């Protein structure tokens, strides 16, 4: 037994020595390979950085209060509009009125209440329902008119609050500042809610998102609530009663939002009843930012310039982009002898721009990015790459 142990021990030691030798050689080779790879990157990348946000990423919103109303088989007073404040004016340099369109099935009565918080009394305050005057007088500030509207009808109706022109005072419009505008309809029968809302150019150009929110305070859930904007369905469910509001997000594309008037419709089946309260439509948009620029400096060595001068190499600018407000992006390469601009209109994602040796020079170069939009730029790299054959 002892005589056989020596060869076994010797074989064991030889195996261990062989493994150590392989490990040492492999490690040396990997180190050499890693070093070559690092040298390759260092020799071919002029600049690698994150630029962060260019432009303003803060959005704002406009809201349209839709009030409280019932849909389905209902018999009740419905508050169709409840507006906190609104400015009415009419003059040579501007005209602003409040208009509200609604449908009635079998209307019994309609009421309009509001407060006048400020006026210059240059002209009358006018209330019209379906083109017929319900009020046409000068209303002092701190007065709170309460009107029972006479010209209500089944079908489509339009309620307008406006001001008479300022007459010879052409330099200043008639102004009425109203608060707490409340419009209530007493109607019988099956109800759906239909209204229009305005989208202005600055909301559409800087559109971020929109949301419709409401509380459900009564629910006879035989059929779902269906909500359409411009005849596009954004919601089709049976909501439960709950203490928190329902909020439906939608985009401009999926609802065909357009400049000017858009249509919102909320319906359910004839065997259901839903009471919705404090319904609110919000449109979030980015304001038009000032033009924003950012500059970075990079060095081009003689070896790098010789490489880009070869036929099989070219320059590449690439970056990841998250767009908040889409706009143009100007990329300028400049130095003491050259100045070249690339113009993009990028979407979110990876962007790439190729350049040649005439766009850079040996020594110090600058890259300047300028946008009139709002975007976050990360992983910006300026480098040499082989041309694709």
Helix % is: 10-25%
Q: Report low-confidence residues grouped into runs of 5 or more.
A: 1-6, 23-42
Mean pLDDT: 85
Q: Given the helix and strand composition, which structural class is it?
A: alpha+beta
Proportion of beta-strand residues: over 45%
User: What general form does the structure show?
Assistant: elongated
The arrangement of helices and strands along the chain is HEEEEEEEEEEEEHEEEEHEEEHEEEEEE
Summarize, please:
By secondary structure, the chain is of the alpha+beta class. The chain has four helices and 25 strands. It has helices at 2-44, 201-205, 252-255, 302-308, and strands at 45-49, 52-54, 59-91, 94-96, 98-104, 106-119, 125-129, 132-137, 146-148, 155-163, 174-191, 193-199, 207-220, 225-229, 232-237, 246-250, 260-267, 273-286, 292-300, 313-325, 329-334, 339-344, 349-355, 363-371, 374-386.
Key words describing this protein structure:
4 helices; 389 residues; 25 strands; eight-stranded antiparallel β-sheet; Jelly Rolls; elongated; alpha+beta; 2 domains; five-stranded antiparallel β-sheet
3D architecture notes:
The structure is a single chain. By secondary structure, the protein is an alpha+beta fold. It has two domains: about 45-55 and about 290-385, Sandwich (Jelly Rolls), CATH 2.60.120; about 60-285, no CATH class. It is built from four helices and 25 strands. The protein has helices at about 1-45, 200-205, 250-255, 300-310, and strands at about 45-50, 50-55, 60-90, 95, 100-105, 105-120, 125-130, 130-135, 145-150, 155-165, 175-190, 195-200, 205-220, 225-230, 230-235, 245-250, 260-265, 275-285, 290-300, 315-325, 330-335, 340-345, 350-355, 365-370, 375-385. The strands form five sheets. Strands 3, 4, 6, 9, 11, 13, 16 and 18 form an eight-stranded antiparallel sheet that branches. Strands 1, 2, 20, 23 and 25 form a five-stranded antiparallel sheet that branches. The longest helix is centred in the first third of the chain and has 43 residues, at about 1-45. The protein starts with a helix and ends with a strand. The model is unreliable at about 1-5 and about 25-40 (pLDDT under 50).
